[in-house]
Predict the structure.
Amino acid sequence: MLKSIDDYHIGHTPIVNIDQSNGSRIILKLERENFLGSVKARTGYFMIKYLPEEARGKMIIESTSGNLGFALGFLCKEAGLEFTCLIDETIADKKLRRLQAEGIGCIMVKQEEGFDLRSSRIRHAERMMREGGCFWVNQYDNNDAVRAHEETTGPELFAQTEGRIDFCVCPMGSGGTICGLGRYLKRKLWNVKICGAEPFGSTIYGTEDAPYINAGAGLKGKPGNILKNPDIVDMSFAVSDDEAIYSAKKIKDDYGISVGITSGMAYAAALRISENNPGSSIAVIAPDGGEAYAEYF
């Protein structure tokens, strides 16, 4: 049985204001300060807290780049559930070592012919669930994953900024974060623009299918969360791995804030928005810190 979300210190992450020369204000919401070190603690809590009855007594499984696996491993243990995460070779070494150190079960999924690594992980999870004995929580199409950010991330950001947000930039992968916080912000702010960022090569909104190393975001095609919420994303940006890494390093060098590649990707998109919208307020969701990505910096 899980304790309350506040008992785990999930949420209530800080924001940092970064002033730009054109008068725009870029606001980073630092999810690295979250319990377990990433935005995925919010997602994991809601998915396990509201797990359907059909999952009881089964092994919980999920396809993950590392952060959600770590959160689910902890939360499943708290709830008395077994958990195994499906990962692939793009997982950051530090994330893999952290999973192993915590005794979290991992299956290294190999790339299937005709599919990218993330799609291969998802296909593997689908097969395991069909075979019985496992329940795939499926972050890509999970109402509670969206609800997590509608009930926590969105309200926090609105309160912290006193509602002064013109654009909100969020990385896209499973779509849960952007759909949940977007739902909330659009109810409160009629003119806010919800902006998605994905790696170049991802085709959630991007048009070119190509390889990319950014394991924390991106997908081939739209996830169920976005398909169910088609009116949330107003703008989208495709950011190359090189630009994402450069932007994460820029945040560290210019402001002394360590963030991961996915955060760098979202910041790069915010800079593009800033160039075309001087004087605007742009909120950016920074999903995790840079400690696990030392191999890229």
Q: What stands out?
A: The radius of gyration is 18 Å. DSSP finds nine helices and ten strands in the chain. Residues 15-34+143-296 form a domain with the Rossmann fold fold (CATH 3.40.50.1100).
